[in-house]
């Protein structure tokens, strides 16, 4: 297949920093959309993958799956997009399209496995991995490209392609809405989106944090109430009160403390990814017929629904813009939790500056 060399940022080994390198993108086939990347969010998954912490990484690795860009060309058979459209690409660029989950619009749970935007075998260029959004451009099948609402700030929209759908999908699946009292655990990249989206869905939102310094922030983001999770008395006040809890914490924590907050038939969905297993006491579930679940991103149709929902309610992420040349420092800050609440790379920096 014919390819074009472009500039990108990535690394060649788990202990290597990200640097500028050249990668090959396929030239558009009849169903492809070629996209000039304008902004790319920085997800914690990028860091884990670059450092080979979530299983073996295929090197060279070019991370980035929160992509917003402009269509520069389309294949002859493309019907959903035209040159000049502002579009998004999220965590996947393909799937088998034939299994029951793909047919149900749940491509993220594709039985053979979805094709990740980066660090997956590239079906179109055998022997190569897919390369993500820390790059000048990307070529994606039109069925895995998304329309971006015109009214949203483009840079602040980029994190919706992962953080937005990761929180929207479980909130939507568990029917969060008016007359529902919903807990959001953790006020970070995921949690701050969870608060905004749950509030826009009409729920009464209770934010849980280990830091009193985040009380005002949680209220600003839309929380109706804020609870210091280290305070047993504050936690006890919500025992058995919540219909649903979205847990966005990736550090080790006592999951039973949050299961105790659920009403009968309540559910807790984990979207954070703690490194070690979280012990669950049987009676945390048995008493009250409670459910402990997990959720991963969303399918293409649901991701488009999320973007349209955010467009309707004018929801974007709170971001800090960086140049691509500062990505290694951003990773160091990400490890310390030193970001409010999502880094976004202005990809013009890749074109305008040399290493």
TrEMBL record:
Keywords: Metal-binding, Oxidoreductase, Zinc. GO terms for molecular function: alcohol dehydrogenase (NADP+) activity; zinc ion binding. Its cofactor is Zn(2+). Gene3D superfamilies: Medium-chain alcohol dehydrogenases, catalytic domain, NAD(P)-binding Rossmann-like Domain. InterPro entries: ADH-like_C (IPR013149), ADH-like_N (IPR013154), ADH_Zn_CS (IPR002328), CAD-like (IPR047109), ER (IPR020843), GroES-like_sf (IPR011032), NAD(P)-bd_dom_sf (IPR036291). Its EC number is 1.-.-.-. SMART domains: PKS_ER (SM00829). The keyword Zinc applies. It is an enzyme of class 1 (oxidoreductase). The keyword Oxidoreductase applies. PROSITE patterns: ADH_ZINC. It comes from the Bacteria. Residues 13-307 form the Enoyl reductase (ER) domain. Belongs to the zinc-containing alcohol dehydrogenase family. PANTHER family: ALDEHYDE REDUCTASE. This is Putative zinc-type alcohol dehydrogenase-like protein.
